[in-house]
Design a protein that fits this description.
Pfam families: M_Eco57I_C. This is DNA methylase. InterPro entries: M_Eco57I_C. This protein has 6 helices and 6 strands; from the N terminus they run E-E-E-E-H-H-E-E-H-H-H-H. With about 150 residues, it is of the alpha+beta class. The strands form 2 sheets. A 3-stranded antiparallel β-sheet has the order 3-1-4.
């Protein structure tokens, strides 16, 4: 049974979702299995950051309609902070924000807590990652909406 799911085809932003229902899936989603020592909710939380999102746009492929697709190998190679930089509290906060469709706020929280305070990246570098993600995402989605 997978611990997490990640959609192969992405419209707005990548998401890594905990498989709380212990569900199975078709090949339209990536099934993520973790080492037993890794908490799925914490990994899902630290995934949602500006650097990982920017690299998803760079490493993925853009298809008709502005869809971003990540093949299994591309998804596996996405740079991600170690889950040790997350916490149960961070996971809960990020989960609530994502459920409310507050993706930018979730990124703000993870960027500050994990990338800046945890990993010591400069706020300027993190802002550059966010700007890169937004530019690449907007270019992809606008290209897909042309008729």
């Amino acid at each position: 049974m997978p611990d997490l799911f990640m959609l192969r085809q992405i419209h707005f932003a990548p998401r890594l979702t905990v498989n709380a229902a212990a569900a199975t899936s078709t090949d339209t989603v990536h099934r993520v299995r973790l080492d037993p020592n890794v908490d799925p909710a914490t990994l899902a939380a630290v995934f949602h950051n500006s650097a990982t999102f920017a690299f998803a746009e760079i490493m993925g492929r853009s298809y008709g309609g502005g869809i971003l697709e990540l093949e299994p190998r591309e998804a596996e190679q996405l740079p991600m902070p170690p889950p040790a930089y997350g916490s149960a509290e961070l996971a809960q906060d990020v989960d609530l924000l994502l459920k409310a469709n507050e993706i930018d706020k979730a990124l703000d929280v993870v960027d500050r807590h994990v990338l800046i305070d945890g990993l010591g990246l400069s706020p300027r570098l993190v802002a550059g990652c966010r700007a890169a993600w937004l530019t690449l995402r907007d270019r992809r989605t606008k290209r897909g909406s042309r008729r």
